[in-house]
From TrEMBL:
This is NnrT protein. The keyword Transmembrane helix applies. The chain crosses the membrane at residues 12-32, 38-61. Keywords: Membrane, Transmembrane, Transmembrane helix. It comes from the Bacteria. It comes from Paracoccus angustae.
Length: 75
């Protein structure tokens, strides 16, 4: 029996952390955009945008962790 965690389960566990990282990065990108004359991105908007954008980020993090676990199992 294969007892490996699937990518979707890892992504589900990592979603909160990935969405938080996306929110922080969006907010910081909005602050850097002020140097170019753009309006600042409010924190609430960064959080709202991070909800859907956290899904692909969590999926990629899950794939990365799955690869690390596979590599550790080979060694």
């Amino acid at each position: 029996m294969d007892d490996r965690w699937p990518v979707w389960r890892l992504a589900l566990l990592l979603y909160v952390f990935a969405a938080a990282a996306v929110a922080i990065n969006l907010f910081m990108l909005g602050l850097m955009g002020q140097a170019l004359g753009l309006a600042a991105l409010p924190p609430a908007l960064a959080l709202a945008l991070s909800v859907p954008l956290g899904i692909p980020a969590a999926w990629l993090a899950g794939r990365w962790i799955r690869g690390l676990l596979d590599q550790a199992a080979q060694d």
